[in-house]
Design a protein that fits this description.
The complex is a heterodimer of chains A (285) and B (530). Chain A is of the alpha+beta class and 285 residues long. In chain A, 29% of the residues lie in helices and 26% in strands. Chain A has a four-stranded antiparallel β-sheet. In chain B, strands 1, 2, 3, 4, 5, 6, 7, 8, 9 and 10 form a ten-stranded mixed β-sheet that branches. Chain B contains 20 helices and ten strands. Among the domains of chain B are: 238 residues, Glycoside hydrolase 38, N terminal domain (7-stranded beta/alpha barrel, Alpha-Beta Barrel); 111 residues, Up-down Bundle (immunoglobulin/albumin-binding domain-like), CATH 1.20.1430. By secondary structure, chain B is of the alpha/beta class. The radius of gyration of chain B is 24 Å and the shape is globular. In chain B, α13 crosses α14. The chains are: A alpha+beta (285), B alpha/beta (530). At the A-B interface, α1, α2, β3, β10 and α6 of A face α1, α9, α10, β10 and α16 of B.
Amino acid sequence: MPRKAKEEEIILDKKIEKKKTTTSKETSSKKNTNNSKKSTSKSTKVGSKSVTSKTSNKKSPVKSTKKVNTKTEKITKKATKKVANKKIEIVEYYDLPYRYNQTVVKVLAQTPTTLFVYWDISDEDKNKYIEQYGEYFFNNTKPVLKVYNITKGYDFEVAINDFSNSWYLSVSDSNCDYKIELARRPINQYVSINNDYLYIASSNEIDSPNDHILFDELSKFVYFKNVKNNKIEKKDITNLFLLKKINKLYSIQNFYKELYPEEAINIDRLDLKNPSSNNPTSSFK
Amino acid sequence: MNEPKGYVSFVLHAHLPFIHHPESENYLEEQWLFEAISETYIPLLLNFQKLVEEKVDFRITMSMTPPLLNMLDNKLLQQKYIKYLKKHIELAKKETTRTTYDSHLNSLSHYYLDRYTNDLHVFHDIYNDNIIQGFKHFQDIGVLEIITCGATHGYFPILYITEQTVKAQIAVGVQTYEKYFDKKPRGIWLPECGYVPEADKYLKEFGIEYIITESHGILYADPTPIYGTFSPIVSKEGIIAFGRDMESSRQVWSSINGYPGDFNYREFYRDVGYDADYDYIKPYIAHNGVRVHTGIKYHRITGKDCEKDYYHIDWAKDSAEKQAGHFLDSRIKQVDTISKYMDEKPPIILCPYDAELYGHWWYEGPYWLYILFKKINFDQKNIKLITPGEYIDKYPEIQVCTPCRSSWGANGYSEVWLNETNDDVHRHLHVAGDKMVELAHLYENEQDTLKVSLLNQCARELLLAQSSDWLFIITNGTMVDYAKKRIKDHIGRFTRLYEEIKKDKIDESFLKNIEEKDCIFPEIDYKIYL
């Protein structure tokens, strides 16, 4: 995407802020970028009060209480009638919900060995635990994430805290199927839980990406498919021309080394700092 | 004709996020499209035309993303682009008077005047304000293969947790393509080359034959592809994957010695928007008086950290011609080495790039491509240009492997679209995705037209929130407020509509208003989320 406009906008924003301080009452309704800027800066405050989304037809939407809101609606309705023929300009203001009040654990793979997990426990479930284990259940227990490597059949646990709702987990094995469990363990004797482990919720399963050439897993045969007639042919790779040429049985590494000389030092772990979707930057200069 | 030793396949990915603000004239972000039309899309079309006229047998592949097609087809944006051009022509005219003190500058100002005037002629008179038909024409005559992309460039490795959202990205991508090109797309550019095997079944369902992946999408595949990236592979589901060639992409992209850094090339960062007297330039910069790029640039890169010299079009062309020669020599050498190991078919060197690199960032890029294609056609017989589709038709025997989960972002996986700067967004995308699926099931047989309109708008809002561009911009640290606002707006609008329909209290004027703003995919059917 053209980047220069992005840079212009930064400068623009800065100038707008400057301008705001100097020239006070400027065209307030049509400064859209400006408006959005304002709402963004106020958003964190509103968000923490768990106000979900708001749309108001008034120009200063943030300070609304319930009473003000109903008033606003009435005023707007009247106003709408008066200007019925004109186009209604709907001023919108949104913030992302602080939470959705669902019990959920989701995991994504950021890299072959870093998983990103986010979670939440619904108020209903929280109350259920409090009912069952006592008022101080959440003070007497700590949250943990149990990481299951399904492919290799092992698991390990990471202690987290109640101030976070997401976490980056380092895992040692790429190219494996993982699942995360959110659970709680007691931190004192005031709460008693079976096996000292209370399961709360499970995540989706994900495959972490592969991060190396699978030389070791290459068997003697490979399969070729004719995509026009769907015929599949089994080929003995030791008979393949390329390997005859290289003259070393199974030594596909040599083929790769020859083809990717730059990567020759460590062909099975390529340099992935490939030029990417990031457009070239000023470093061209 | 003899079979060449190898093939080269250029794939240009043309994409911009959907930016459409009928409510204001002042969004600078809308200019991304106008800059791309003037600097990339029109120059590409003109060069294709020249190649055809000169009887050059060339092949090129382009992905044109659904948001880009929707914007190019949008009447309001077409009118805004014409306004943009007229303003540029006016400025260029003034420049021809202002620069009379220096004959070189003056000739450059005349060059810009000609160029913008010609843009207007091409856009308005030749293509009737819609350049999509220009690209369609070159596809129809067989030199250009256009492929599709995810509906709004949603990044599959994040979305696939709710698989229907990936399915919808693919379905709408294919539908949009059919609407504009009267046929089914053979290939798809996976947004950000983000590959997950879970998407294969939907690609298959919607008739996609091939995808483009980053190099390690092929090299790390299972089992190891015996020809590396020099031949495609086919997944168990039957999706064919072509991988990016590493050597050729480095030659163009490298920030250290990549072609676009040549000292004779036009300097991107010097522009009359910044250099000219303030009062003079004021009508042509941002509405609030902030200096911005105008596109009229008089300097060349010249060197590192030095005074910038004037741009000489002839010198720049000379550099482009030398580099085209270098690129061709390198490919011939490369093909020569590889073909020794490939007995069954000639190798394919796949060269995918952002289309906007050509012309917008690398001003001389379209000319470089034109010269290169001519050289390939006239100067040698070792290599030939091909499209992935043609390669499949010629060499349908393909090794069966599952490509590796990968992307073309920094470090090859998902870090660009999932990191500390943007990871608060993902849960909202997932929840909205789940809610959309819920709505599709709840209102599967809905007959009420207002409700159907609302449900369709929900689908548009969800798709717009999913654009990988917002996450990318946040990571990049520029224009962050705009990107965050877009996510909040689309999730906010979606959530409001979701609640309205569930409570059966639909605010019709609100719905109309956002239908006008977020007017992408007019024919969308929310039932794709079933």
